[in-house]
Each structure stands twice: as structure tokens, then as C-alpha cells.
Design a protein that fits this description.
The protein is built from 11 helices and 10 strands. With 338 residues, it is of the alpha+beta class. The chain folds into 2 domains: 89 residues; 227 residues, BirA Bifunctional Protein, domain 2, CATH 3.30.930. It starts with a helix and ends with a helix. The structure holds 3,4-dihydroxyphenylalanine. The site of 3,4-dihydroxyphenylalanine (DAH) has 11 residues, from β9 and β10.
Length: 338
């Protein structure tokens, strides 16, 4: 029996030493120490051993049982530690790797350009005014000397919200909203969104305008001209020719459209200026007495000038952007250039 115990012990220890899998280790535990295991079998067999041999044999059997249990426990610890090690290296975070930087955003080109224009006029003493995008027909048209049957209304393809209420087709209604609140002298600029039923490469149903209004005693067309020439030189840089072309707007008299020599071809003629050498950049004029009447301003005492321009158009001319749609499609590849 002693020899059998020794063989069992060395066989078991060898076997356990060679195991590298926790499941097989558990099978091995059952095989030796389980209820029907080999060591358990030997311990049961002690009953048949003679009384004088039994204590020594019992001791030996218990020692073997303990040795195998210790070997199983030690192996279990080693295998578990190895498994843990393997898992943690597999899932490890490399703290030395650089992090992912958040991508900082920046203002869209349109507000950038609008801010720039505002700054130029602020230096001249103009203040910024704003008005609602949803406007009454009164402010959008009637107060600006454009009654319902006036042919000039046709040029503004208007979104109606409900009878008498529109999405403003220009920023000019803010002129009246300002004049209703303050007495001259008035010098305001109005950046803002406007809306028209219009959609092609140079028109968007929503776009940005920039309005200006100056009213005081003795304001002349020369003041208008000087102010706008200064603005155009600041915005487009020196060296552009500027011309004032007679035009019609219901709310100004006389009225003019202003062109600058083409920013692309310097006046030689190209696709951008449709081979005319000139680019139309804004509308302007001297405030119509009818408009002053609506504002309850004394039109004998005061005079003023007003102007309006497309912010999108100014941005497109500066950056040679071919379609206004690019500005509103939110393609980052396009927007990130500015
Ligand atoms: N409101 C005009 C438009 O949208 C632009 C304009 C022209 C504004 C002349 C003015 C002005 O203030 O005096 O077409």
C-alpha cells in the first residue's frame, strides 16, 4: 500500500505540474480528491489494513492527500494570476498615447463678414439695430412707400405667414422700427436674415442683408457717397473703381445702385462680372419724404441716406465662391477654409 501511495503521489504531482488550463485542473482535483477520487479510495481502503499498520498508513495517506491538495491550490493560484495578467494586458490602456483633440469650431463665414462690416461702420459712429424676421406687411412694404398695388412689390417674391404678416424680404423695415423709437440724429446699421421665394446659384430662400440708415439735419448725397466709398475701400481693399448708377427704390429718392470694378479681373471682363468689368454690390439713396412721414419725422428739417447690401454676395465676391448654396449646405470641407 505504501508503494501504491508513493506512485499515486508522484504521478499526481507530475500531472498537476503539467496542467496549464483551469478546467483541466478542476478535472484533476475531482480525479484525485473527489468523492470517488483515487486518494479518497485509498483512505477508504484503510479499513482493511491491520490495526497496527493503520496509524502509519493513515498518516501517510493524509500527507499524500494534503500534498496533492496543496499542489492543486498552488497551481490554481498560478493559472488564475496568469489569466488575469493576460486579460489586463489585452485590455490595457496605453497612457503614453496622445489623446484625441476636440475639434474647435469657428464662426461661419457669413457672421464673420457681417461682423467685419459692422466694425467698419462702428468706427464711423453707427450703432447696431435689429428687428424681427417675421414682419408685418406694414413695416416690410407700406411704411417704406410700397403700398399693396405698387409694382416694386413684384420684385420681392414674398413668403406669407398669414394675411398681413410676412417673412421680411429685406432689412429695410428696421429703418422704420428705429425711427419710430428715436429722434434724429440717427446712425444705425442692421445685419440680419431675409427671405424670398427664390432659389438658384446666386439666390437662396434665406440670405443675409446689411442695412444702413443715417438721418440728421443737412445730410446730403455727398455724405452717402463718401460713407459708401470709405466702406468699399475698407472691405475690398484699395484700387477699385466705384460707380453710382441711377436706380429706383420706393423708399429712397434719388436712388442708386453701386458697382465696383470686378474684383476678379480688375475690370477687364470675365465670367464673374458677365464681361461688363463691373460688379453690383449695393443699393442706396436719400430717404424718401413719404418714409419720414410714416416715422413722424419733420422732412423739411431732416434729411438722410439709406443703403442695403447682400452679405452673402459680399462674402462670395471676396472669396470667389461660385454658388450661394455652398454657404448653407454645411459641408465642413467648404466651411473650414474660412
Ligand atoms: N431693400 C433693398 C433690397 O432688398 C436694398 C436697399 C436699397 C436698401 C436701397 C436701402 C436702400 O436702404 O436705400 O433690394
Amino acid at each position: 500500500m505504501k508503494a501504491a501511495l508513493e506512485a499515486l503521489e508522484s504521478g499526481a504531482l507530475d500531472e498537476i505540474a503539467g496542467i496549464d488550463d483551469l478546467k483541466i485542473l478542476e478535472e484533476s482535483r475531482v480525479k484525485y480528491l473527489g468523492r470517488n477520487g483515487q486518494v479518497t479510495g485509498i483512505l477508504r481502503g484503510l479499513a482493511t489494513v491491520s490495526a497496527e499498520e493503520r496509524p502509519a498508513m493513515g498518516q501517510a495517506a493524509n500527507r499524500v492527500k494534503q500534498a496533492i491538495a496543496d499542489a492543486l491550490d498552488a497551481k490554481k493560484d498560478t493559472l488564475e494570476a496568469a489569466a488575469f495578467e493576460k486579460q489586463t494586458t489585452a485590455e490595457a490602456v496605453d497612457l503614453s498615447l496622445p489623446g484625441r483633440r476636440p475639434r474647435p469650431g469657428h464662426a461661419h463665414l457669413i457672421p464673420q463678414v457681417a461682423d467685419e462690416i459692422v466694425d467698419i461702420f462702428r468706427e464711423l459712429g453707427f450703432q447696431v439695430a435689429t428687428g424681427p424676421d417675421i414682419e408685418t406687411e406694414y413695416y416690410n412694404f407700406d411704411a417704406l412707400n410700397t403700398p399693396a398695388d405698387h409694382p416694386a412689390r413684384d420684385s420681392h417674391d414674398t413668403f406669407f405667414v398669414k394675411p398681413g404678416v410676412v417673412l421680411r424680404t429685406h432689412t429695410s423695415p428696421v429703418q422704420m422700427r428705429v425711427m419710430e423709437k428715436v429722434q434724429p440724429p440717427v446712425a444705425v446699421v442692421v445685419p440680419g436674415r431675409v427671405y424670398r421665394v427664390d432659389y438658384d446659384a446666386s439666390h437662396s430662400p434665406m440670405f443675409y442683408q446689411f442695412e444702413g440708415l443715417l438721418v440728421d439735419e443737412g445730410v446730403s448725397f455727398a455724405d452717402l457717397k463718401g460713407t459708401l466709398m470709405h466702406f468699399l475701400e475698407r472691405y475690398f481693399g484699395p484700387g477699385h473703381k466705384v460707380r453710382f448708377r441711377p436706380h429706383f427704390f420706393p423708399f429712397t429718392e434719388p436712388s442708386a445702385e453701386v458697382d465696383i470694378s470686378c474684383t476678379m479681373c480688375k475690370g477687364a471682363g470675365c465670367r464673374v462680372c458677365k464681361h461688363s468689368g463691373w460688379l453690383e454690390v449695393l443699393g442706396c439713396g436719400m430717404v424718401h419724404p413719404e418714409v419720414f412721414k410714416h416715422a413722424n419725422y419733420d422732412y423739411e428739417k431732416y434729411s438722410g441716406f439709406a443703403f442695403g447690401m447682400g452679405v452673402d454676395r459680399l462674402a462670395m465676391l471676396r472669396h470667389a465662391i461660385s454658388s450661394i448654396g455652398h454657404l448653407y449646405e454645411n459641408d465642413l470641407r467648404f466651411l473650414e477654409q474660412f
